[in-house]
Amino acid sequence: MKRFVALLLLAACAPPPEEPSDWELKHLAAAWQEQKVTLPPYPANASLVEFSPSASGGFRFFIDSGSLAVGGDGVVRYVLVARSPDGVDNVSFEGLRCATGEYRIYAVGHRDRSWTERGGPWQTVSAASAQWRRELRNNYFCRYGQPIRDRDEGLRMLRQGGWKPDG
């Protein structure tokens, strides 16, 4: 029993898994199919939940609570609002594929509250990715390569500042 407890403690303290290998990505991609994505309504200020990446450069970051969802394909989708120090909003509709550590931008928003769809590919969230995107993956929406269970869990993570040791 002591050995089991020791192994359990070691597993709980282990760092998140490394980036998937090319082989893993290839085999995960072969079995996975992305669900059809519909653009959400443009975000309203009242539905924004702020989170604080460590290196924000003066920007404030928000997730639109109404858009946060976990698809049947395991992708966490959300509208991100990055507000500049001058009050200008940069709005995007994105997805995080936790199993592979990838992200995709589905659409970008405009001042007239419209969307322009983007057909870009999935890209790896890496050390070169924006800090806020790495933090959403590592601390809020993907834990050890697994997506949040649902919208409520994601909102709880945002409001409490990310994963806690007991959470």
Present the secondary structure layout.
Layout: H1 2-13, H2 22-31, E1 48-51, E2 60-64, E3 69-70, E4 75-83, E5 89-97, E6 102-109, E7 115-117, E8 123-124, H3 131-141, E9 142-143, E10 146-147, H4 151-160
Antiparallel strand pairs: 1-2, 2-4, 3-4, 4-5, 5-6, 6-7, 6-8, 9-10
Task: Characterise this structure.
- The protein is of the alpha+beta class and 167 residues long.
- It has one domain (18-30, 42-160).
- 26% of the residues lie in helices and 28% in strands.
- Strands 1, 2, 3, 4, 5, 6, 7 and 8 form an eight-stranded antiparallel sheet that branches. Strands 9-10 form a two-stranded antiparallel ribbon.
- The longest helix is centred in the N-terminal third of the chain and has 12 residues, at 2-13.
- The relative contact order is 0.16.
- The model is unreliable at 1-14 (pLDDT under 50).
What sort of overall outline do the alpha carbons produce when their principal axes are compared? Answer: globular
Tell me the number of structural domains: 1
What is the number of E strands? 10
Mean pLDDT: 84
What is the string of SSEs from the N terminus onward?
A: HHEEEEEEEEHEEH
Q: Main β-sheet: number of strands, strand sense, barrel status?
A: 8 strands, antiparallel
What Rg do the Cα atoms give?
17 Å
Low-confidence segments, ≥5 residues, pLDDT <50? Answer: 1-14
Proportion of helical residues: 25-40%
Distance between the termini: 24 Å
Tally of helical runs: 4
Structural class: alpha+beta
State the assembly state of the protein chains. Answer: single chain
Give the DSSP E fraction (strand runs of 2 or more residues).
25-35%
